Amino acid sequence: MSRLRSHTESHLVERISWLRAAVLGANDGIVSTASLIVGVAAASSGPNEVLLAGVAGLVAGAMSMAAGEYVSVSSQSDAENADLARERSELATQPEFERRELADIYVQRGLDADLALKVADQLMAKDALGAHARDELGISEMTVARPVQAAMASAASFAVGAALPLAMVFVSPADKLVYTVSAAALVFLALLGALGAWAGGANIARATLRVSFWGAFAMALTAAIGALVGKAV
């Protein structure tokens, strides 16, 4: 019994609240900033213009990611709070209906009716709202919306991701900038895909290939458009 009490487990799903925002932010930072730099450089712009565009892309992108993530996750949080408020009201006004509703959920999961009622009674006696939030609404501590945390993770990860291709502007010859930034961005994306897959327990090769392919596609398309616009102008 003592061995069971001392046994602890760490589940990968516990990382989902920050892993999604971090990987998305870093990926977006690398792809968008590298694509911006490649597009501006392909339009025959000078190093100063390329650097300015890259810095502007980093700052604007980080703020956009933070604002967008905060707004979207806040909307999720508002919906969760509305559901919890309605559930709290129903528990106060219709406790027997809520008891049966929770028991029915457990019956659908494989318990017999008598045992399901006993489980519902014991869980509701301890924390009725928590039981309904978890088993009826699917809201738990691991998945609950955290707008500020998501916004900060997205902004920080975007800035870190964007800084990687931007740093290549300082070390690359001006005439090789498009190729240097593109190659470096693909390496960064591959590493990000592998790291994200490792942290989430996913297939590393598949994740790395997926991230690299779409990053290469975005940069190639932006470079082509930049070259066309540069010739037209």
SSE arrangement:
Blueprint (H helix, E strand, L loop, with lengths): L1 H5 L9 H27 L4 H47 L1 H14 L4 H23 L11 H25 L5 H24 L3 H29 L1
Molecular structure report:
83% of the residues lie in helices and 0% in strands. The mean pLDDT is 81. 32% of the residues are buried.
Which labels suit this protein?
about 0% strand; about 230 residues; single chain
Write a concise synopsis of the structure shown.
The chain is an all-alpha fold and 233 residues long. 83% of the residues lie in helices and 0% in strands.
Backbone structural class: mainly alpha
List the quaternary state of the chains. single chain
* Extended strand count: 0
Low-confidence spans: pLDDT under 50, at least 5 residues? none
Radius of gyration, in angstroms, nearest whole number: 25 Å
Tally of distinct domains: 1
What's the average pLDDT? 81
Helical run tally: 8
Shape: elongated
Distance between the termini: 77 Å
Q: What is the helix content?
A: over 70%
**What amount of the residues lies in strands?**
under 5%
